[in-house]
Structures are given as structure tokens and as C-alpha cells.
Design goal:
single chain; 420 residues; 2 domains; 5-stranded mixed sheet; 16 helices; 12% strand; elongated; endoplasmic reticulum; membrane; nucleotide-binding; STING
Length: 420
């Protein structure tokens, strides 16, 4: 208990807080990381609500209350009729061809899938019909309702009222059904979650085997540096992308039983990145292999992934992977994401050492990181020899809880320790 509440523990917590906040600031402010997409807000909904309110109020002023109510009911009934007919059309396809394969023969599930917000829609229709009865709509008014519903179906059939790319993207991001989400989670659960907790032990074992080698002598570089090119193009060898990035050695292999494979092997490679003076800087380095899937999908017409969509998926992959790793206590502070804006580099005059310069910049930032150091224990505590005779010792310190701390993660403030 004393170790947990000692100044050394407090300094470690503060150091961890500063490091994490520093890293999040780096992610927000520097280089191509500024391109990371942020979650979409509610501004379109607010704009739509404001525009609808202005239009309805203006129409009410010009037409008068009675005429406004009549035309509003006609328009609303027409839109509701079109929505119901659209659901019936969808229901026909689903019932005839997909009831068993997609819904396991469940009619309620199929109805919920075809009629979005069915209870609310039914309630709106009932209210509108009752309101129409009180207004005593004429036969010509019901014709207008039918025509509005018919035109709504035509617009849907020709794709004019289909969701826009922005709406589709928003739905996919909210429900986390993008390709990038799957790739990021697969990369984490199938690889990073396995190897990152063992990275420090692997490097220490490497030092023991090599006899305290000067390679990776700074603990600041004891992280897995993951290179993520925005083009998603990944060469098989890093030397092919930059001659100043040279393979140095492999860390000891990590063998575990995985998915029926006995002693499946995972390992990392150590690279020497040369600066402009030819001095080597060593780090554990590799590309994010799931990006190969995105690149190959964009090269295959049957996948239907354009180069622009691929770029958006890469950015979303970075954003998702960053969030996953920051929430993982096992992986946090054991990695660095190095985003490589190689597309912009290809547009201008190519720099043959662009990769090495980007990596060196990251390594230099890690070396410059400074953390507070715990004050000496003798300045905080004055040990005294206790008498053998029991005495009553009263402390001015506030009582401390006796339970373990629970970490509360806040990306903007760093980890906050709260006591149970």
C-alpha cells in the first residue's frame, strides 16, 4: 500500500499523464495527422429544422391558418403515403427472396427492416387522417395526396431521393460498418493486442542475447513504430522505399497458440534509419499490413473501391486504430503511428529520403520528451527510529482510501486515477 501511495508512484502517474497528453497534442497538430476526419456533428439537422420552421411560418402568414392547415395535411399525407408505398415495395422483394436467408423466417424482423420507425409513422398517419376528416378534404385534395405519393415513388425509383455519399458515410461511421473499422479492429485483436504487451520483454531479451548491445539503448524508442502511408501502398521491403532505411536485426520471436495453430510465430524487425550524416538511429519499425488490403481492393474493379474512397478509408483506419490503442491499457504508450503523406510527395518532386526523414522526425520528438522526476524520498519523509514502547502517533494527513485505483480515460486530459 505504501508503494502505491509513494512519491515514486505519483511521479509515474504524472509522467504517464504528461506523456499521453503530449502524444494527443501531437496527433492533433502536426503534419498529415491534421487530415484525420472528425466525427460529424448535428449541424445538418439543426439547419434543416431551422429552414423548415422558416418556410412553414412564412407559408402560414401568407395563406392564413385555415388554408395552411389544409395544404399542410395534404402534403404530409402525400409524403406519408409515399413512405408507406416504398416500404411495401421493399417488403415484396424481401418476402419473396430473402425471408429465410436474411431474417430466418421472422416476419417481425422483416417488417422492422422495411418500415423504418413504423410505430411513429403509423401514429403520424392516423393523426393526419383524423385531422383531414375534421377539415373535410374534397375529392380533388385526395387526388393531390395520391399524386404526391406517386411522385415520391418515382423519385425514389430513379435514385433522385437516394441517400447522398455524405449520408451513407455518416451512417457507416455511426454504425461502425466501414471497411476501415473492420481492418483496424482486425489489426488490433489479431496482432497488436498480442505483441505489444510483450514488446518490452522482447527488447530486453534481445539485449541479454546480444550482450547489452547499443541498439535500442534509449527506452524512449522501445515502441513499435507503425508506418501508415495515405496511398495505402506498402512495399515488401522498407529499403525499396528509402535507401537510408536499412534492416538491422530481428527481435526474439513470440510464439503462442492461436486459432488452432500450435506455437504461431510473431516477430518484429529492427531497422537502422540513417540521418544526413550517415549516423544510424535504431527503432522497431513496420508498415500497417491491413493497408495492403485497401490498396489491392482499389486495384480490383470488382471491389468497387475508388482511389478517393481508399484515401478516406485510410484516414478512418488511422482514426479508429488510434482510438482503439489509446483505450487499451495493454497497448498504450507501446506504439507510435507515423502517418506518411506520400500522395502529396508523389504530386511534387519526389524525395528519395522522404520516409527516413519522417521517421527521424518522430524519433527526435521522442528523444526530446521530458517528464517530471520524483523528488528524493529523504526530502519528503524523515524516518525516525520508533520506540519499543507503544505510543499514539497522530498524523495531520487526510485519510486515504485503501482500495486500488481505477483508471478513468480522458483523451484530452490524460489518465485520471479515481479511487473505488
Amino acid at each position: 500500500m505504501q508503494d502505491r501511495l509513494s512519491p515514486r508512484f505519483g511521479a509515474k502517474v504524472f509522467q504517464f499523464t504528461v506523456e499521453r497528453k503530449y502524444y494527443w497534442d501531437m496527433l492533433r497538430l502536426e503534419g498529415p495527422l491534421r487530415l484525420l476526419p472528425q466525427p460529424r456533428g448535428r449541424l445538418p439537422s439543426y439547419c434543416a429544422g431551422a429552414a423548415a420552421a422558416v418556410i412553414l411560418l412564412a407559408t402560414n402568414l401568407f395563406l392564413g391558418h385555415t388554408q395552411f392547415c389544409r395544404h399542410a395535411v395534404i402534403a404530409a399525407l402525400g409524403i406519408a403515403l409515399g413512405t408507406i408505398l416504398q416500404g411495401v415495395c421493399l417488403l415484396t422483394e424481401e418476402y419473396l427472396h430473402h425471408l429465410v436467408s436474411r431474417y430466418h423466417g421472422s416476419l417481425p424482423r422483416m417488417l422492422r427492416a422495411c418500415f423504418s420507425g413504423a410505430p411513429l409513422l403509423l401514429g403520424v398517419v392516423v393523426v393526419l387522417v383524423l385531422w383531414a376528416g375534421s377539415l373535410q378534404l374534397k375529392l380533388a385534395d385526395w387526388y393531390v395526396v395520391a399524386m404526391t405519393g406517386g411522385f415520391s415513388l418515382l423519385l425514389k425509383a430513379f435514385g433522385i431521393m437516394s441517400p447522398t455519399p455524405v449520408e451513407i458515410s455518416e451512417i457507416c461511421e455511426q454504425r461502425k460498418i466501414n471497411v476501415a473499422h473492420g481492418l483496424a479492429w482486425s489489426f488490433y485483436t489479431g496482432y497488436l493486442k498480442i505483441v505489444l504487451p510483450k514488446l518490452v520483454d522482447s527488447i530486453e531479451q534481445y539485449h541479454r542475447h546480444k550482450g547489452n548491445s547499443s541498439t535500442l539503448r534509449h527506452r524512449d524508442s522501445w515502441r513499435l513504430h507503425i508506418v501508415i502511408p495515405l496511398s495505402a501502398f506498402i512495399p515488401d521491403k522498407l529499403e525499396e522505399a528509402d535507401r537510408r532505411v536499412r534492416f538491422h536485426d530481428n527481435l526474439p520471436e513470440i510464439a503462442i497458440d492461436r486459432a488452432g495453430v500450435r506455437r504461431r510465430v510473431y516477430k518484429h524487425s529492427v531497422y537502422a534509419v540513417l540521418d544526413h550524416q550517415g549516423q544510424p538511429h535504431h527503432c522497431v519499425l513496420e508498415y500497417a499490413t491491413p493497408l495492403q488490403t485497401l490498396y489491392l481492393m482499389s486495384q480490383d474493379s470488382s471491389a468497387g473501391l475508388s482511389s478517393e474512397e481508399r484515401r478516406q478509408q485510410v484516414l478512418l483506419f488511422i482514426h479508429t486504430l488510434q482510438g482503439i490503442l489509446e483505450e487499451s491499457v495493454e497497448c498504450r504508450n507501446r506504439y507510435r503511428l507515423i502517418v506518411l503523406d506520400d500522395e502529396r510527395e508523389q504530386e511534387g518532386e519526389p524525395d528519395p529520403y522522404f520516409l527516413s526523414k519522417t521517421i527521424l522526425k518522430q524519433l527526435q520528438q521522442e528523444e526530446r520528451e521530458e517528464y517530471p522526476v520524483a523528488p528524493p524520498r529523504d526530502k519528503l519523509f524523515k524516518p525516525e527510529v520508533l520506540s519499543r514502547v507503544p505510543t499514539l502517533m497522530i498524523s495531520d494527513d487526510l485519510p486515504s482510501p485503501l482500495r486500488d485505483p481505477v483508471e478513468m480515460n480522458d483523451p484530452s486530459l490524460g489518465p485520471i486515477h479515481q479511487w473505488k
